[in-house]
Each structure stands twice: as structure tokens, then as C-alpha cells.
Amino acid sequence: MTVPHSKQGGEASVVFDAVSKRFAAAGKSAAFTALNNVSLTVARGSITGIIGRSGAGKSTLIRLVNGLEKPSSGKVLVDDVDVAALDETALRSLRRSIGMIFQHFNLLSSRTAFGNVALPLEIAGMERRAIETRVRPLLDLVGLADKRSRYPAELSGGQKQRIGIARALATEPKLLLSDEATSALDPETTQSILELLKRINAELGLTVLLITHEMEVVKAVTTDVAVIDRGEIVERGHTFDVFTHPRHETTRALLSGLPGSRLPDAVARALKPTPLADGRTVVRLTFVGPAAERPLVSQLIKSLGAEVNIIAGTIDEIGGKPYGSLVVAYGADAETLEKAQSFFLENGLVTEVLGYVA
Amino acid sequence: MSPDLLLLIGKATLDTLRMVAIAGLIGSLIGLPIGVFLATSAKGELFPAPTANRVVGLVVNAARSTPFIILVVAIIPFTRLVTGTSIGTKAAIVPLTVATIPFFARLVEAAIRDIDKGLIEAARAMGATPMQIVFKVLLAEARPALTLALTMTIVSLIGYSAMVGAVGGGGLGDLGIRYGYQRFMPDVMLVVVVVLIVLVQLVQSAGDRLARRFDKRNRKT
């Protein structure tokens, strides 16, 4: 199955235009604003992640795209079509062009792997023989051709999600919605599912919009990210930029969960906001792109002529670009600080003074 | 036991089977859509019709709370309208059917409500029509539970069918009352009870087996 690449840069697949969603008071629960004036563009061919804590409004946001929820105000455009303006028939045909995968897979227990992948095709009224020829390569694509006659209860979580993905791709959609698709899976399985999503995005040119509460997921696959907090988008941009220069406190808080970006507890506790006599400065260095490949630490030591100790660090790839983060400490005297400052400037390094220790 | 009596017992068994089969078939065919409607017509569901849902629910409750023996007598005019008579095995099928409908409908409702809402959402996201959701998702997924519901309905019907002897409906219950009790023939009573027990056992174990076969949720890997 080949879908022509439609990665025309900048073209929007989904546009949220000043979207708000309020849920009316029902019974004992008070009225609730799930989304407040959200504007966001999902570029065609991108893997866009929306990250936020539970209750931040992500699920509502993704459900607006295929009309499972209707906005209270504002517009959601999918390929320039206003979703809320569609009648039931038009909405159903739009939904057939959008795949969706779920946290709990939502496979029919009464159908085999094959039957589950065939379901959206049956719904679309495809003939039995055509279904057979469509489903087989999909099971191959997700690596489960040998499980076609198995029921979901006989499959592992990762296998179930692979079937979920094959099912979502059955109608050859141009957009895939992923609703916490890896949240019920262990880290290893999560990685393999994310790899599959990446492959699908690259090979089929499919736009992927995913919501998650896990920064690891955003880091591993997305090209673009939006951070949502209490119904509002607080930060958005290319994943690499948001990760390397988080501006909003929610983003920082979410990022702090990533390994390597956290200070060891002992250091974090000892950190003071002002320099201490004979103390040391704690600085986070961020290496981006080619800088990540130069021997900067040894150069730093040489140019300072002083000791530098490494407190925490990580080297990783974000949005496909190499990225390093290193927390170091060196003398807090005026001379050392000045030397360090000029070294960082010369080398174009991004630094952040985290504080001072004795 | 005389051959005449054995013949009577055989005929009564056939009568019971016929009443149960016909009432069970018609009653569950009518009860099934009513049950699906009850399970899918509340506010915000597939076929939102909250008022109709409440009305149907009330009628079902009313029918369910009427003691069967009173129902039998109360709908005699309707029975006569349908079958032309108010006594006999044929007439007895009418109240049995009427009692089956709400009983089965409530069981169907429970079976359908039990299905994970995520499956309905997934089907909606695929662009399924409400009818496709009913047939391809709800009824398909509820098949094991529906099989058990039908089994339970038939077992109840066998019990009810013993009561229609009161209005001249035939069958095992009628035989038990007239020969076993009124003529004081404990051996007839015993045979009637044993046959009923065997019937219920057969229906129950067949239903259980079928439901297990339909249920793919607990397969061993």
C-alpha cells in the first residue's frame, strides 16, 4: 500500500481556530471548561504531539478532530473543512478518512485479528474479496501476519496495539489520531510501537496527531509539540526547540521527569540563589547539533584553568537532532565566571545558571 | 404406571416444549429490539430518545411486576383476539409470549450496557452508522451474554408454562396439578417434576456450552 507523499511543507492538516469546549453542569458535577480558546495548526506530514497532565483537555482536543466532540465555540478544520458544520453523512465519510488508535486498543473481543482490521472496511461497505486483499498487507506491515486468526485475548498488549494500528490504517487515511496509544504498554513495547508510528509517517506520508502525558513519547517521535495545561496551549513549536528551550513552567515540569535532566537530589537541596564565598557555580550547558560532537568539556577545563566537575548529563536525540545536556560546577569567583562566560559566547553554547553551592 | 399415563406424560411434555419454543421464539424476537432500544436510547447515546426510553422502561417494569398468573387472566381479551380462544395450549402461548418480552428485553439491555463504551467510540471513529454499531459491535460482542440471557429466559418459561394449566393450557404443569395433586397420584407428580428438572438441565447446559463457544475473551494463549 503506497500513498503518495504529501509532505508539502507548512500545509495544514488540522487547524484549531480559537476552539473552546465547555461541558454543561450535569447532576452533581459543575460546569467545566475543558478547552479555552485553543489555536493550533498540525502541519501535513508532521508527527505532532500534544502533551499535558491528565485532565488538561488533551482527550477532548483530539476528539474534536473527528467530531466525537463538538466545540462550544471556535472552529476545527480538517483539510480546510469545518468538522462541526458537517451533517451526519459527511461526518461519517470524514471519519473514514481519519484513523484512530486508543489507549485500551478497543478491539472487538469477538473478532480475530483479521476481523478487527476488516471492521472499518466492512463499515465502509467494501466487498469481502477486496477486504482480504487490503487486510493482508496491513497485517504484514505491523508484523502480525501469523496472528491473523488469533483473538485479542490471545495477543499481548503490544500486539493488540499493532492490530489497532493496522485497523486505523485500513481505510487508507491521511491522518492518524493517537489517544495515549502507548500509555498502557511497558517501555520496551512503547518504543516498538513508536518506531512503527514513525515508519508509517515516513513511508505512507501520514500525518500523526498524538496525545500523551509522557515526555518520552514526545521526544522519541514527534516533530512538533504543543503543551496543554488546564485547557490552554501554553507552549508550542518544533519539538527540538521546545525541549532545548522550554519557556513555560508546565513544560519544564514535564521535562524534569526525563532522565538526565534532573539534578541529583543532594545537589538540588544544596542549591542557593546567590554565590557563596569560595563556593561553586552550577550551570546547565545545552549542546545542540554539531556542538554536541565537539570535546567541549575538556576545552572548557583548559580555558578556565580550573576544575570542573560534572553533576548530571544526558546525550540524546530529540526530533531527530542530536542534543546534549550537561550540568557542571566550577568556581564562583569573578575571574572564573568571566572566563566561562566568554568561552560559552565563543562556542555559541546555551547556558543556564541553576544556582550556587558551597 | 399404565401406558395411558405414559402417553399422557409424553403428550404433556410435547405441549410444554411447544409452548416454550413458540413463546420463547416470538418473545425473544420482540424482546431483543426492545432491549437494544432500552440500552441505546438514553440521553447522549446512539439513538437518543429519553422520553420514549422512559415510557418503554415503565411499560416493561409494569409487565415485569405483574404476577404471571394475574397477567394470564388480565390479558384474556387480547388472547381471545389473537387466537380466537382463551383456553388450551394455543391460548396459553399468548401470555407466555407477553411475559417473555419484557423479561428478555431487560436481560438484553443489561448485556448490551455491559459492553465497553470504548468499542462504541472506536466504531463511531471509523464512521459507522448507529445501525452498524448495533449489528457489528453491540450484538456481536454481546453474543455470549445474549446466549445466557436466552437460556435464562427459556428456563423461566418452562416454569411459567407450568402455571398456564390454570387457564386450561396443557403441558406438564397442568398434568401435575390434575393427576398428581387433584387425583392424588404421587407417581405422576414425581415423573412430571423429574421431566421438568431434566428439561431445565438440558437447556441450561446447552446454553452454557454455546455461550462458552461464543466467548473469545478468556482464551488461552
Short description:
Chain A is α/β, with parallel strands linked by helices.
Describe this structure in words.
The complex is a heterodimer of chains A (358) and B (221). Chain A is α/β, with parallel strands linked by helices and 358 residues long. Chain A has helices spanning 58-65, 88-95, 113-123, 128-141, 157-169, 187-204, 215-221, 239-244, 249-255, 265-270, 296-304, 334-347, and strands spanning 12-23, 32-43, 47-51, 73-78, 81-82, 98-102, 175-179, 207-212, 224-229, 232-238, 280-288, 309-318, 321-331, 350-357. Residues 1-10 of chain A have low confidence and may be disordered. Chain B has 221 residues and is an all-alpha fold. Chain B contains ten helices and no strands. Chains A and B meet through helix 2, strand 6 and helix 3 of A and helix 6 and helix 7 of B.
- Taken as a percent bin, the fraction of beta residues of chain B is under 5%
Number of distinct helices of chain B: 10
Q: Strand order across the biggest sheet of chain A?
A: 6-7-8-3-9-10
The averaged pLDDT of chain B comes out at 93
**What is the rounded distance between the termini of chain A?**
62 Å
Give me some keywords for this one.
heterodimer; A: 358 residues; alpha/beta; Rossmann fold; Alpha-Beta Plaits; six-stranded mixed beta sheet; four-stranded antiparallel beta sheet; 12 helices; 14 strands; B: 221 residues; mainly alpha; MetI-like fold; 79% helix
List the helices and strands and how they pair.
The complex is a heterodimer of chains A (358) and B (221).
Chain A: E1 12-23, E2 32-43, E3 47-51, H1 58-65, E4 73-78, E5 81-82, H2 88-95, E6 98-102, H3 113-123, H4 128-141, H5 157-169, E7 175-179, H6 187-204, E8 207-212, H7 215-221, E9 224-229, E10 232-238, H8 239-244, H9 249-255, H10 265-270, E11 280-288, H11 296-304, E12 309-318, E13 321-331, H12 334-347, E14 350-357
Parallel strand pairs in A: 3-8, 3-9, 6-7, 7-8
Antiparallel strand pairs in A: 1-2, 1-4, 4-5, 9-10, 11-13, 11-14, 12-13
Helix pairs in contact in A: 3-4, 3-5, 4-5, 5-6
Chain B: H1 3-40, H2 50-65, H3 68-74, H4 76-83, H5 89-113, H6 117-125, H7 130-141, H8 143-161, H9 172-182, H10 186-214
Helix pairs in contact in B: 1-5, 1-8, 1-9, 2-5, 4-5, 5-8, 6-7, 8-10, 9-10
